[in-house]
Design a protein that fits this description.
- By secondary structure, this protein is of the alpha/beta class.
- Helix content is about 30%, strand content about 20%.
- The chain contains 14 helices and 21 strands.
- The strands form four sheets. Strands 1, 2, 3, 4, 5, 18, 19, 20 and 21 form a nine-stranded mixed β-sheet that branches.
- Helix 3 crosses helix 4.
- It is globular, with a radius of gyration of 21 Å.
- The relative contact order is 0.17.
Length: about 450
Amino acid sequence: MFSMVINNGFVVDGTNRKGFYGNIGIEDGKIKAISKEQLQGKKVIDATGKIVAPGFIDPHGHVDGHEYAGELSACQGITTTIGGNCGLSPIAMNSFFEHQDSIGFPIHQAELVGHSFSLRKEVGIINEHAKATNKQIEEMARLAEIALKEGACGISFGLDYAPGSSIDEIKELVKVCSFYNKVCPIHSRLVTERDMNSLYELFSIAKETNATFLLSHFVYQYSASGIHMALRLVDKARENGLRMHMDSGMYTSWATYAGTATFEERSLKTNDLRLENIIVASGPYFGKRLNKELYYIMRNEYPQESLIYEEGTKEDVYACLKKSYCMPSTDIGAYKKGEGHPQIAGTFPKYIKEMVIDNKFLSIEECIYKGTKMPANLFGIKNKGTIEEGMDGDIIIFDLNRIEDKAKFPNEGYPDEKPVGMDYVIVNGQCVVENSVFTGSRSGRCIKLR
């Protein structure tokens, strides 16, 4: 008898092979049996009429131990998150891992070490427009190497947030990551929203370093400048042997902190970013559209609050996620309840509904593969991403006929409203979501990739 069994479900195992009806036995947090015969267990979940799949692996998040972000991730079917993106992360990885594992967490966490906020600050660079000295570059490389040895899964960059970063600075850190055969997720520069210079920069660095790049939240970066041109360039780079991968979300309107370089007056003018297209996503002015007065208030008094810029079309979203090398991501961050961007609660249910059900761009098998085994393979996460005997017991059960995101933009409703149809989320053999209700289970663990 198993500690948990899932009977009568349609299993989509994450391998991109055709789904099948089967039953799953879980013991000691592991998948111990997959059978055509019904199994016996102490806890029995009847998955009749439901999809049973590996838990999603979110390749681009900012959960970083924040409790509510972990809960919202779990409720949309994420069982593993990659944190520390966009250059913002813990530096002391061992301390982060030890603390998180001592208290537990709703989902598993792998962590990147971040360049553009965290490492630069650690070596004394306060001005985002400042170039690092050779000594500072050497120190950042040393700290990054320590973090990778302690189990960080790569080095992340948020070049938009550190416009002073030189090519040499970026290149030296990328070389460290490449030496350890780990991934560099990169939020590209905002040179202007109307050109592709930021992509050419990354191609040049990738060619010289032979690094593996993950182009972060691609639709956010290139919807304004022409997503199809950007995708053609990435296609060509891959054809030429560059190791380019991509993550992208289900929204085109993007969010970041009010005080970042992205929202400097010079950047607004250069990129034709209009104040009336900006909505406050957190803080006392939540849901308000910016005017000149509110812009200065947010920049000067509330630089750590989040703003959303409205742009792009659904077709941009779909064009990215139809690419064979693109995986879905949330860009989830830490918000207070009732605040934020709908990506924090709605991304993966929206991905299933729009890409599989509404538009039939993907089969259910391909949809699951792109959100599970694909990121597991990219980051080298073993024992996750597929439903096979011996793999970790990280499983989701959802109703394909009911799955739907409910989260809204701040001016329309609640950004953190949880989805419907995601019935069970199982992490390490424990129900974190049961009958669509968050249980508070803390069975998630840190993933150290040494």
